Amino acid sequence: MRFTVFLTQRGWLTATQCVQVLSVICERTPPIGKLAIRERFLSLQQVAALLHNVPDRTVPLGKLAQQAGLLSEAQRRQLVEAQYRATPKAADVVVELGFMSRDAVEREHRAFLASM
Fold this sequence. Notes:
The two termini are about 15 Å apart. By secondary structure, this protein is mainly alpha-helical. Helix 7 (about 90-95) runs antiparallel to helix 8 (about 100-115). The chain folds into 2 domains: about 1-30 and about 90-115; about 30-85. It contains 8 helices and no strands.
């Protein structure tokens, strides 16, 4: 997200394009529940029960499952890492959507890292 905002501030992306990039990233980020089922840490029924029984969605599903004793800390951490790895990178989405060339994105990414 910070890189996308950086590109917008530097005039490479419009606000609308920034939102488009972030929307694609959100749409393609696999939910923790889906990853937990795939890894066989939780069943579909357990995920459904967690989602159904918790009106306050400010607590992440992985944390809820851990608090309920359904996931260990190590399993929750493994799921978060898997989610991070599966989440598309902003630079790739910017190029895929045709907003910038790969070379320009790489140059700007170096500038972004240097600015931190």
